[in-house]
């Protein structure tokens, strides 16, 4: 079994804290891979933009490197200025490295660091029969001037967001992703929704000490990301509309209605229109 860990590194960005977090992330990934005691083969598989591949970056821990050319700028024409990758494009590239139906993919945001025993935990859960799970990070606020080993020792604080996903490669081929971009609100919900629908044994680990993030700045909540959030929210709402027509467990459909209500609320849908837009979803529960 291969555990194919993919992510999208940043190369040229003005956010020094993000670059620092990515440096820690890459060090932690290398450390976790070296510390792994299990049977699976760990494949570290970053996906770069083709014009940024491995610029000024230590690539010693990479096993495979894939590239993409398209970004949200190509989809939105003049709407977007940030060069954010399309989630589905990253997934397509990662799947190229899957060798069998038994392989698993791991996706993490570029600023999510791993504990040394991360891959051991992942393999244990896969062996227990889980075909998809999410691992929520812990937030470390006082991280300045700390070594990697010191960061490992900090328990940190529980965080509710989704930023680490493990799922069977065979299921990923069926994922519905639309044109959601990563790096903006709602991207993690695409993985969550697909896993909720397609996995037979799915779990969310909300309080384990397995990954961590330096600080809790939530840049993607800033005004400069509003248009990207609106784009992603609209795309995720469309995914929900397609999934809710399927013959799914009623509790899963209720969760989808809840998510769609949140999306429409954040998109600024007026109360009367919100009720109207949700009525169709609610009818499909019965």
Structure, explained:
The chain has a seven-stranded mixed β-sheet with strand order 3-2-1-4-9-6-10, sandwiched between helices. The model has no long low-confidence stretch (mean pLDDT 90). It is 40% helix and 16% strand. It is α/β, with parallel strands linked by helices. The protein has a single domain (2-219), classed as Spore Coat Polysaccharide Biosynthesis Protein SpsA, Chain A (Alpha-Beta Complex), CATH 3.90.550.10. It is built from ten helices and eleven strands.
Q: Main attributes?
A:
globular; 40% helix; seven-stranded mixed β-sheet; four-stranded mixed β-sheet; alpha/beta
Report the portion of residues in β strands.
15-25%
Helix residue percentage = 25-40%
Shape: globular
Q: List the helices and strands in order.
A: EHEEHHEEHEEHEEHHEEHHH
- CATH architecture term: Alpha-Beta Complex
How many domains comprise the coordinates?
1
CATH class category name: Alpha Beta
Structural class, from helix and strand content?
A: alpha/beta
State the major sheet.
Answer: 7 strands, mixed
Rounded radius of gyration (Å): 19 Å
Number of helices: 10
| Arrangement of strands in the largest sheet | 3-2-1-4-9-6-10
Distance between the termini: 41 Å
Count of extended strands: 11
């Amino acid at each position: 079994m291969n555990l194919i860990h993919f992510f999208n590194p940043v190369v040229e960005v003005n956010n020094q804290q993000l670059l620092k977090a990515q440096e820690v992330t890459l060090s932690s990934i290398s450390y976790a891979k070296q510390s792994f005691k299990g049977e699976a083969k760990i494949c570290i598989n970053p996906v770069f933009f083709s014009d940024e591949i491995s610029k000024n970056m230590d690539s010693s821990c990479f096993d495979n490197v894939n590239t993409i050319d398209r970004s949200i700028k190509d989809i939105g024409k003049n709407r977007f200025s940030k060069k954010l990758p399309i989630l589905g494009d990253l997934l397509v590239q990662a799947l190229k490295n899957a060798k069998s139906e038994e392989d698993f993919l791991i996706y993490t945001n570029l600023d999510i660091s791993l504990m040394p025993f991360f891959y051991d935990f992942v393999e244990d859960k896969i062996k227990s029969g889980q075909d998809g799970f999410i691992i929520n990070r812990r937030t470390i606020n006082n991280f300045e001037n700390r070594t990697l080993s010191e960061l490992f020792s900090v328990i940190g604080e529980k965080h509710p967001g989704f930023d680490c996903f493990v799922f069977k490669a065979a299921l990923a081929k069926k994922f519905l992703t639309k044109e959601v971009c990563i790096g903006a609100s709602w991207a993690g919900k695409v993985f969550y929704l697909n896993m909720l629908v397609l996995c037979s044994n799915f779990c969310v680990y909300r309080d384990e000490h397995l990954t961590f993030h330096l600080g809790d700045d939530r840049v993607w909540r800033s005004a400069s990301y509003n248009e990207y959030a609106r784009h992603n929210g609209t795309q995720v709402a469309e995914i929900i509309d397609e999934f809710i027509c399927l013959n799914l467990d009623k509790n899963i459909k209720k969760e989808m209605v809840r998510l769609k209500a949140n999306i429409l609320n954040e998109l600024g849908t007026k109360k009367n229109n919100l009720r109207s837009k949700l009525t169709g979803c609610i009818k499909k529960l019965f």
